[in-house]
Specification:
Layout lengths: L11 E2 L8 E2 L10 E6 L5 E6 L16 E6 L6 E4 L10 E4 L6 E5 L12 E5 L6 E3 L9 E7 L5 E6 L12 E6 L4 E4 L7 E8 L5 E8 L9 E6 L6 E2 L4
Antiparallel strand pairs: 1-2, 3-4, 4-5, 5-6, 7-8, 8-9, 9-10, 11-12, 12-13, 13-14, 15-16, 16-17, 17-18
Length: about 240
């Protein structure tokens, strides 16, 4: 639902066939929306974004900023894990790290060295005790469609359109950020007429599948499925010519 038509977003659960629908949040006042729900890997908790008051009541918070919340799977025990005092720096998306041992979220950045229009991806402990930028001391990658997290939670794939590291306007390439090494590097070297998109890790984290789009074919007829090593080597097409 949309805030523009005065409807309020709440989070619900339902059986796989759509039956037994049950609200987990029960906001009724304008601008108290709850959304962006993500199940924890073990299914015991739900991560979500909300504008509601920090005490969980049915009123908007004083800062009018989205905050990160966690609640139990049945909707009980809601608690704030990350508070934001400025609507311009509140998170736009969030998801669990593999194993549920942390949270990755995106928020505009105003720290020295960040690009305000791009912001940072941040890593947060699931109890909210520690928050740190994912790419500390590095230029921020402009990730077009979010991050693809490796199965071990240590590496991140990013589809970048115009990276601060390499000006390539009009060209989409895949980048890898290594959390342990605090380093990021391009995985694909696309020519002007091609764009690499939609990266996905293999279950063991050793391979990366992605699509390569030929610019000018809007119907996707020239898209091909590719695969490469996790380091970006040995890329080969699986479909197409």
């Amino acid at each position: 639902t949309s805030r523009k038509d005065s409807r309020i977003e709440n989070i619900w659960t339902a059986a796989a066939d759509g039956s037994a629908a049950k609200p987990l949040t029960r906001m009724t006042r304008p601008n108290t929306d709850c959304g962006g729900a993500e199940w924890s890997p073990d299914g015991s908790r739900i991560l979500f974004l909300s504008l509601r008051a920090l005490d969980g009541s049915d009123t908007i918070n004083e800062e009018d900023a989205l905050n990160l919340w966690i609640m139990d799977a049945d909707g009980s025990n809601p608690r704030v894990v990350a508070r934001f005092e400025d609507p311009d720096t509140s998170p736009s998306s969030a998801e669990w790290l593999p194993g549920g041992k942390g949270i990755v979220f995106h928020a505009p950045g105003k720290d020295e060295g960040s690009l305000p229009e791009l912001g940072y991806y941040w890593v947060l402990n699931d109890d909210g005790a520690e928050r740190s930028p994912l790419s500390r001391d590095l230029p921020v990658l402009h990730c077009l469609r979010g991050l693809e997290i490796s199965p071990d939670g240590r590496k991140f794939l990013c589809e970048s359109f115009d990276s601060p590291l390499r000006k390539q306007k009009g060209r989409e390439t895949l980048w890898l950020y290594d959390r342990d090494a605090n380093a990021q590097s391009p995985l694909t070297q696309d020519v002007k007429e091609e764009a690499s998109r939609d990266p996905r890790w293999s279950p063991d984290g050793k391979l990366i599948a992605f699509s390569r789009h030929t610019v000018g074919f809007l119907d996707g007829s020239a898209d091909r499925l590719w695969i490469m090593d996790a380091e970006g080597k040995n890329a080969k097409a699986l479909t197409g010519r």
